What we know:
Chain A has helices spanning 3-15, 35-47, 54-63, 69-91, 97-118, 126-140, 160-170, 174-182, 184-195, 210-226, 234-238, 240-266, 269-272, 291-303, 308-324, 333-345, and strands spanning 18-23, 26-30, 143-145, 276-280, 326-328.
Amino acid sequence: MTKEQIDFHIKRLLSGEFILDGNDDDFLFLKVPSKKTQMIADKLCGDNDLGMTQEELDKFLEMNGYWTMTDEVDLKNLQESLENMKLDLWYEDVEKRDVIRNKIKKTNLVISQLIHKLHNYDYLLKSYIGISIKSKYMLSKSVFDEDDNPVMIDNIYLSIDSILQQYFNNRCNDNQLREISLSEPWRRFWEAAKENNGAIFTSSGSDLTDEQISLISWTKFFDNVREHPEFPGEEVLSDEDLFDGWCFHQKNKRSGEMDKRDINSRITDNIKGCGEVFLIRQHEENSDKPVDVDQRSFVNKVEKFNDGLAKGAKAARAKAIREKGIVSEIELPDNQRDIAMVFANKGP
Amino acid sequence: MSNNKRLYYACEDIGIAPDGTNSFVRVHGVQSAGSNVSFNLDAISELGQSALYENKEVLPDVQFTAQKVLDGYPLMYHMATQSSTTGTLQGRSRAKCLISVITFDDTLDSASGVPQSECLMSGMFPSSISYTFGVDGNFTEDMTFVGNNRLWRNTENGAGGPAPLFSGTSINTDTPYAITGSGGVNRRWNFLFDVNSIQPLDVNGQVNYNGATILPPDIEGISSSGVNFRNSDGTFKASIQSITASVDLNRQDIFELGNRNPYFKFVQFPVQVTCAITVNAKKWDNVSATYYGVADGAGNNLFNRSIKIKTLEGTFIDLGVKNKLASTDFTLGDTGGQNGTVTYNYTTYNDFTVKHPQDPNVSLR
């Protein structure tokens, strides 16, 4: 976004209102609907029985080939590889980052195409129709003129559909709110409000708009990141992909530490001194993961404990056991090597 | 030969079978286990040659250690000694067992649900046994086994390897045995102190009863009959923090000409049995000692004491009637809010009878 766009959105977000494009100087505004209006809108949404359930839509998409199992797997894999690319971006040298950034850009494009494909028929959903009814009702009760007088939709030049269109087209998406939360003008307002122990928005918590809530969340999140012992610097915060890479790195680090604590708590002092430590799989309580996924994540967790030497020894053992079927302890390749070394050390 | 490397294996199950059979039974509630193998090498030189004449491999020592929670299922000690004819330490000392640990393959991609190899240890004798009951955490059984044989078997499906002797169970529904009756995995509130009916006294004047824990009266708060009675508010007179009963069998190999393997791993009786009881220090350690003996005026400061331990899930440990206080450790409280504690260390010899309602050998329950 340009500086002007950011400034405009900040003012809009601070006011809590939404300006509608209209006839020249004849401005109309959208305000946060009253609680009563919201309640009626929720009821209208709930009363709607038109449209398909998610399950029915899934079947419809699958039967007509609009969304296949392959698409599902592709999307999942792309999202996973996007996470890995962002991690690579964090780990990689500065000069090599451009190549990864290009890959990320391409992957994001494919992901957004797939997501568009997945949600292309959402308008058939009961929930979508309900939300549409709700939104239209709320918008119809939220239009005001410049003097704060409510305006009846039937009396103006804009249709409810065009208001809805404007509202969704011009509101900030999550990425834009993230950008705004890092921008200088916004941070100035935020810090000033903190200094004065005052609220930054005039409305109370329950009257905040979705955009205002999201902006507060992003700002608080970045405040916390700035207090992190490994704070990566302001340039990283403003680089969306690089910062995502840092977050994934921190997440992996934390999950690795938790795994380590979990495994260590199960190893008693007697067992700590053993050459082979056997860790029994404990099923996660209330886990809805399939057994094989559960096993795989457990194996991964345990494998992290083996250093390079141990991994090599285990791989050699597995190979020998696979080849011979039954292998005695002394025939294990790592033991053979250890014995040979002892023999060599006892020589002249 | 020392073993410096440490390999971590993800495994599915551990099974124990009486030696000479393949009747493996899954050990429930195992937390973790470890194993060590030492190859004993004997360097032989000859006169006139600087190079080694032969580096003789004598006999590998295999050790297996495991910890399980007390959960109503059979104890490892009982599973390993189910061929015994009596339940005493001597009676169970001759039995040996097979232990199977089934592991997943090392390669992450191959963890497809079928365990890939079996680590099989045969001729394993219990070497040390320990039971721990603490206010924090689960009650546990720790065991170490010793033997001389360990094999690795490829049991991967379709790989042409041998069928696993113990196939384990890849289930997601295992729960402690009879969870409603036995308290599940037992913790501090499953420790039984209450003697609810009149019971006979033993030679030490302590209650001779297998349904509750009986402790030495030396401990401040324990009655002269060995019972930890309750105060009027339901709390106990002695606030026991932990009890650990253990024995190290100190097995020795007995060899015979013509065999490389020992024909028996003999327990060098008498073996010392220890019991450490830690209580919160409410007053003192209640122990006096003088050169002329305060106990009976005949040079003795100590009496023989009986110790019995009982948990809700069924484990009952009888340390006999000849336990004597070996030492007390008084730990003072500190400024950090740590309570003062007294640990009473009792020792006896050979008396270590453990019973459990799920003992695979029904006659020893």
